Amino acid sequence: MSRLPVSLQSLLIQCAATLLAALLFWLAASSGAFQTATWQFALAQGGLAAVLSRAAGQPVWWQPLHALFVPAALLAGQAALPAWIYLAAFILLLLFYWSSFRTRVPLYLSDMKAWQALETLLPASRPFRFIDLGSGLGDVLFHLERKFPDGQFVGAEIAPAPWLISRLRAAVGRRRATFLRRDYARLDLGAYDVVFAFLSPAAMPALWRQAQQQMRAGSTFISLSFEVAGRQPDQRISLADGKRHTLYVWHMPMPKNS
Asked: Which of 109, 125, 154, 184 could form a disulfide with 133, with the two C-beta atoms 3.0–4.6 Å apart?
């Protein structure tokens, strides 16, 4: 199951949890132990889904999503909300998570600790080109461009809503950073001195192959939180406890046998 997109994993987990909960409640009802209530079933299904999510090795934040999905749907159904609200919520989610099913990269937002650590890795005395792959709302670039007036900062974001928000923020604030609504897999990473990514474990193998093929000697590849399997980084910068709060740095090119 680990090779499936997280979205498809989650669908299978929800279906399996529903079947298991139905089986357990059927056994309990047939033995006369208790009468099944809808809320009891929803909570049991959610608990089972969270357990299955953990067993499948999904990121930890998926577990509460699984646990609350059916109870939230039940609550929404009882609230008798107008149909347009569901449509609006679906469209909003689609605009933010446009390609997550294909790329397996959700919207992750980095924090100030990561931005400050990035400052130490950028050249202070010469011009350079920096690209943020999956630039989200643009905060990384807006922070760095103030610190490095000679740098050229580019963001690549495929989801429509984050891309539009970052473009509007850049225009209103008269920022130097530019934002492309582009799949980073279709970009030439050789055009940049520093490539930064905060994506997902599923995206790293293909991105690493692209970096090795395209990035120039002397350029730098940086990943926040997610390592490249079997590829020892040149630097590790710890931002807090745990791998999720670590910058991994590779100076290109890597040896051919890597």
From this structure: 184
